[in-house]
Amino acid sequence: MSLTTTLSPQQATFPGTPAPAARAVGVTKQYGAGDATVAALDDVSVDLDRGRFTAIMGPSGSGKSTLLHMLAGLDRPTSGEVYLGDTEITSLRDKRLTMLRRDRIGFIFQSFNLLPTMTAAENIVLPMRIAGRRPDPDWVAAIVQTVGLDGRLGHRPSQLSGGQQQRVAAARALASRPEIVFADEPTGALDSRSGTELLRFLRTAVDELAQTVVMVTHDPTAAAYADRVLFLADGHIVDEMHDPSAEAVLDYMKNLGA
Amino acid sequence: MLTATFRSMVAHKLRLLLTTASIALGVALLAGTLILTNTMGIAFDMLFGKIGSGTDTVVRAEAPFTQTEGVGTNRGPIAASVLDQVKKVDGVRAAEGTVQGYALLTDTHGKAITTNGGAPTNGYSMPSDEELRGDVELLSGHAPTNAHEVAIDATSAEDHDIALGSSIKVLFQGPTQEFTVVGTIGYGDGIKDLGGTTSAYFDPATAQKVLGTPGAFDQINVSAADGVSQAELADRISDVIPAGTEAVTGKAVAEENADATKQNFSIVGILFGIFAGIALFVGSFIIWNTFTMTVTQRSREIALLRAIGARRRQVMSSLLLEALGLGLFASAVGFGLGIGVAKGLKWLMDAVGFALPFTSLQIEASQVWISLAVGVGVTVVAALVPARRATKVLPIEALRESTPGAEKSSKLRAVIGLAVIAAGAGALWASLYADGGMKLFGLGLGAAMVGVIIALPVAVRPLAAAIATPLRLRGLPGELAKQNAARNPRRTSATAAALMIGLTLVVSMGVFASSLKASFGDVLSDRVDADLYVVTSSAQAPGYSPSVLAAVKGVDGVDEVSANGWGQARFDGQDSGFSSIDPGNADEVLALNVEKGSLADLGKDDVMVARSAAKEHGWKVGDTVTAEFAESGKHQLHVAAVYEGKGWISDDFVVSRAAQEALAGPQLVSNAFVTIDAGADRAEVQDAIAAALADHPDAKVLDRAGFEKEASGFIDQLLTFMTVMLALAVMIALLGIVNTLALSVFERTRELGLLRAVGMTRSQVRAMVRWESAVISLIGAVSGAALGIGIGLAMSQILKDEGIKSISIPVLQIAVYVAVAAAAGVLAAVGPARSAAKVDVLKAVVTD
């Protein structure tokens, strides 16, 4: 548990270490025009390490979700660059970007993660089906078992609890072996027990499968499952914390809010 | 609240436009068909009603029976002496004998002036009394006064550049004569023809000679003196006229004509009725969908109004007021468009050669009221349910986004639907064996359709699965398309129903027409052995003058000419059609297969009966059959022969043409078969006959191929008409599909966003929506085609006695129809697919 100052991207990518899973370089996102311009992100640069669990925290309006959307290729910055591995994604056309999301990124949203007409099993392999690829059955079986969805695979989302639905979403996010999983408030709509189960699963994925996970959350307890927490305020990364505890994050957030 | 309603309407211009457009469209189609149907009805009415408008009492021969086909009743002539008796009756201001008959006008080049849609070409006697002329008025020139003068309807004169003073030929059942055109005739209110017919007017003496019988009239028209009522006059006249004649009021005659018109018109009326029904169904469905969408979109606005204290009733009445205003405005716009629709339909039918008797568009207040009432009514009702749903929702719930889940199909629906289908099928089956089966047939048909519509939602899922099997090849978008199409079975089936009804109509008629054509071809090749064929110059004309036959006979190289005619009479107490033939040579060109007796014995008092009729009544050669003719009353005919009753001639009763002339008056010839001398060149003889027919513009000569083509011409017209119907049905259905897809895309915004987020490309999204549309269309097209084939087969079966001997299913044609429907579905999806692909991923997946 250590509190350090913000790292510059130059410091993070020194030679000898593998390239980060994702990288933002001077990303700015503005909404509106003229006098009414509001900057949701202001010149943010950050590296997200491979095989680690990163949480992004900050008060409402700090730009944390916007940053996640930029990194995940769901939105385009006003200026700056975003890299996924070695690929600069802000200049990609829609089709390439869509395929990149499909093949190299996993998503868990706060709610509405699943197609209501498809069973849990079908939802899990959705990105691969979209790509027209055959999923690796052993891998999918392993994921399903880890998530604890045995016996529920034939159910449709309406027949599953909120926690089960989010676990299906998590299984889908991992099933295609993405380079990075982005989770946007994945526990936001869950009770604490279901939330804990989901976070444990994400932690396991990082520890045992060397998966890279980036999660936006406003919950210090959730952030405590991460290896590293980035703190955003007013569109800037103001600080970060490694191996955090819930109490430390909560304290810091109180300071940030004060 | 009124202000809020108005502001809200203006604030959503696009939505306003969409809703207005859908209401206006539904009303436009309704109004268009109403106007067109009414206009054609009036065209028929004019034909039979207008001429009699100045007549208070009609004296005519009593009809022995009412004929079952055609308009009006054939009656015998009335002796001229009766006119003198009538004129003496107290209260008669004026009385004149009238004559009406076949008169084909030619233009100044001798070319026949033919009419569209089988409208008659008539000649009339011109009454000299102004009032007895009714609406008939001279637009130019003067009334005909001698045997060389004629007045013609203004449309014929204008369209064919026939100036006053020019000389034209007029063809009758008797010899053709030449007349000088001395006047043009109109019918009041700027109307220049009687519902698409042509009319020639002669002075009464000439009319008697060329149209009827000298010394006799068809009827006597009487105008009452002031203060004498129609009924009173009719009573007084009844007392003096001889037995076998009757005096009826002008009003009664007008009513008879109106009834006859309605009967004659019923099939066209039914076709257009079905059409307006489809239009209305799709229209109200579109309105329903649109309101569901707009109310959902506005649920927050409504919640806000409720939260700040608006009562449910206030919100509700605000929404209904909006529907009312919108419905009224859009219906008015729709009615305006409807006039254009009527014009367009008329133009379309003319363009494909399926013209109907027609006059200028008749727009009446009742059409306006019906259109407005239906438009407003449907809008308000369609808005009611979504409005109720919106106001029932607690304000806070409106903030929560809900996804439309899959709806369960009910077993009850399946049971009821299948029961109704079974009842309909039972009625259809029974109609094949029952007397007067057509009514039962219609009933069964209606029931089967209703049953299918009820049960269709239950069948949507299996149908979608069956249809989508090939779509699996297209991967996930295809799979999702299938699921989405089956997701809301009631909505899908309602969308597909319009297409289904259209295809049912078109395919059933296609099977029927194809069977008819096949039957005709078979009969011609198996049962007819002629070298050349002399037919009417216009396919729809009732026949040509017998003088043509003499002209053809005189041509070098012609061996035999054998003519056919057709008529109606009552045999042994039952109304029946009969054929007339030339007994001397009919068996040289027709395989009649006489089984007993001999054709040569078929004299003026004889009849040949079909085997089936002979068997049924126990008639043998030498027996007597009572035959009653409208024109001449009862006669005892001897059975001279019994024939097979199948082939070119298939009527139960066949008489000689000489007998028909004697019993039913002068007759037109339907067609004649010509054989040529051994060694003569057929093409040369054909040319020679054609030359001989130069003075007979009502007839023409054809070879076998030409005859086959000509005779199947009406079938081709039927097919063209069907194609137009299909095009229109598909167009209407298209609107429904576009609307349903737009609603679905709107409802599934979040799903689409999710799919895009996890990697579905825009083109895949577009493909998904297109395939969904194709599946919906195919559900309609395939079920419609299946239903249509069944109905077409039943229709062919029931008309077996009317000449349908072979049954043929036009497989390729039906496949094309289905393919067109599917393609239309894909086309309909273009817009919704684009908006689906444009869904903002972030807005869709981010919960705020």
Topology:
The complex is a heterodimer of chains A (258) and B (848).
Chain A: E1 2-4, H1 9-12, E2 22-31, E3 38-48, E4 53-57, H2 64-71, E5 79-84, E6 87-88, H3 94-104, E7 105-108, H4 120-124, H5 126-131, H6 137-147, H7 162-175, E8 180-184, H8 192-209, E9 213-216, H9 220-223, E10 228-233, E11 236-242, H10 246-257
Chain B: H1 2-11, H2 13-49, E1 57-61, E2 78-79, H3 80-88, E3 92-98, E4 100-102, E5 104-105, E6 121-125, E7 137-141, E8 149-153, H4 154-159, E9 167-171, E10 177-186, E11 198-202, H5 204-211, E12 216-217, E13 219-224, H6 230-240, E14 245-249, H7 250-297, H8 299-307, H9 312-351, H10 365-392, H11 411-431, H12 437-468, H13 475-485, H14 489-527, E15 532-536, H15 547-553, E16 558-571, E17 574-581, H16 586-589, E18 594-597, E19 606-610, H17 611-617, E20 624-629, E21 633-643, E22 653-656, H18 657-664, E23 671-676, H19 682-692, E24 699-702, H20 704-711, H21 713-747, H22 749-757, H23 762-798, H24 811-828, H25 830-837, H26 841-845
Parallel strand pairs in B: 6-11, 8-10, 17-22, 19-21
Antiparallel strand pairs in B: 1-13, 1-14, 2-12, 3-13, 4-6, 5-9, 7-10, 8-11, 9-10, 15-23, 15-24, 16-17, 16-20, 16-23, 18-21, 19-22, 20-21
Structure description:
The complex is a heterodimer of chains A (258) and B (848). With 258 residues, chain A is of the alpha/beta class. Chain A has one domain (50-69, 92-257): P-loop containing nucleotide triphosphate hydrolases (Rossmann fold, 3-Layer(aba) Sandwich), CATH 3.40.50.300. Helix content of chain A is 36%, strand content 24%. A seven-stranded mixed sheet of chain A has the order 1-11-10-4-9-8-7, with helices on both faces. In chain A, strands 3-2-5-6 form a four-stranded antiparallel sheet, covered by helices on one side. In chain A, helix 6 runs antiparallel to helix 7 (162-175) and helix 7 packs parallel to helix 8 (192-209). Chain A is globular. Among the domains of chain B are: 55-261, no CATH class; 459-528 and 712-848, no CATH class; 532-702, no CATH class. In chain B, the strands form four sheets. In chain B, strands 4, 5, 6, 7, 8, 9, 10 and 11 form an eight-stranded mixed sheet that branches. In chain B, helix 2 packs antiparallel against helix 10 and helix 14 crosses helix 23 (762-798). The interface between A and B is medium-sized, with 34 and 29 residues. Chain A: GO terms for molecular function: ATP binding; ATP hydrolysis activity; transmembrane transporter activity.
